[in-house]
Amino acid sequence: MAAAGDIYERELKSLLSGDKKTITKMIKTCSEDESRSYSLMLEDPFLVIRAAGSLGVDLVALRWDFSFPIEVKSSAEETMHFSRNPRLTEQAAKMKDVCCRSNLLPVYAFRLKSVRGDPWRVFTIPTEEELRGRNELLRKRIPKMEVTGNGNYIMRWEDGIKLSDLISYMSDDITSEDIF
């Protein structure tokens, strides 16, 4: 039997990969705009690879214009405090370090359980590193996780960008002037 988190990893992988069955199921409770955004994945999907092992990355999304590692988290609670589990903090630090060295944007996808509409929110780990190309555009667009005075991360579901909005943004034509 699959672990609870695996269900949402597979769901996100299928959504970003343009799986028609998963998208059809997702958009049943979504608004018209959210549904339209998810449907864009049918036309311009990512190649999404499930990462093996515990590198702080569950999925890697690849497409001609954007590529990023994704750590998937799910909860019935709207707020996720990394301080409650030291492993989460270590995992985030490792992901941040690897992504900074590779000039990649570390992405966290937070799935709120039992919610109608778009249940996914996307965050990034705060960093001072400026990224190159379109990764920098995403870094500016995706909300950063909150950091406590003790340096612990917090994801508040309501503060993230809807996955459907991020898909819409990535599907818009971005001119080269925006990149440089």
Number of strands: 9
Mind telling me which CATH architecture this is? 3-Layer(aba) Sandwich
The main sheet comes to: 6 strands, mixed
The gyration radius over C-alpha positions equals 16 Å
Could you say how many structural domains there are in total? 1
CATH topology: Trna Endonuclease, Chain: A, domain 1
Helix content: 25-40%
**Class by helix and strand content?**
alpha+beta
What is the count of DSSP helices, taking H or I runs of 4+ residues? 7
- Write down the overall geometry: globular
Strand content: 15-25%
Task: Provide tags for this entry.
single chain; 180 residues; alpha+beta; Trna Endonuclease, Chain: A, domain 1; six-stranded mixed sheet; three-stranded antiparallel sheet; 9 strands
